[in-house]
Specification:
single chain; 205 residues; alpha+beta; 4-stranded antiparallel β-sheet; 3-stranded antiparallel β-sheet; 5 helices
């Protein structure tokens, strides 16, 4: 008897296919947690919103070109998978919106210009933050530490970044070649589901 004509053969194939389908249904999101993130912002929308914010806030450079990518913080997800509860915990953190390892990054730049800005959004379009890089030759008014911190926190709040539950753990200054004094502030909160990891926010002014 030819095996491909055997009812038993096709019955076994059907059972195997059913088992594979059930396994995929229950495990697919665990294996690919990005599928739990609502991707409601596309590349065009991310670029347009970054340009709108840059124009509104006066982020450099003017008349910028743009480059947009969907970025994955592999260091964060790998740490959680290996050191902080594995894929089930990663799935929980993503589902609760407590981490955002997948995000849109929009780089605003001009060729041969040291000034540039990187703007970030969550997959569902929430503004996550920005990093503006200024030439070291550019000058700016000098601020004392407390004045710089107050300005940084005020600007963060205006952009929707809350520091509730975070504690300032580090304040550093850096004087660049133009004499400009830059301040950076690091805020931290314990996140039980990150194990030994910490949730941090950085502000620079």
């Amino acid at each position: 008897m030819k095996p491909f004509r055997s009812p038993l053969f096709w019955a076994l194939c059907s059972l195997a296919a059913l088992g594979a389908a059930l396994f995929a249904k229950t495990q697919f999101h665990q294996a690919f947690p990005i599928l739990d993130q609502p991707l409601t912002m596309d590349r065009v929308a991310a670029t347009a919103e970054a340009r709108r914010l840059a124009s509104l806030q006066g982020w450099s450079p003017a008349e910028a070109k743009d480059a947009t990518q969907f970025w994955h913080n592999a260091d964060l997800t790998t740490f959680i998978e290996l050191e902080a509860g594995g894929k089930p915990n990663l799935h929980q953190l993503l589902g609760q919106g407590r981490i955002t390892p997948y995000r849109w990054q929009v780089r605003l730049y001009r060729p041969k210009d040291a000034a540039e800005t990187l703007v970030e959004f969550s997959p569902d379009g929430r503004f996550l933050g920005f990093r503006e890089k200024l030439p070291e030759t550019q000058t700016a008014p000098e601020l004392a530490q407390e004045a710089a911190r107050s300005l940084a926190e005020t600007k963060a709040a205006a952009l929707g970044q809350t520091l509730q539950g975070y504690t300032l753990v580090e304040a550093k200054s850096n004087r660049v070649v133009s004499g400009r004094l830059d301040w950076s502030f690091t805020y931290e909160r314990a996140e039980p589901l990150l194990g030994a990891g910490r949730d941090q926010i950085g502000l620079v002014v």
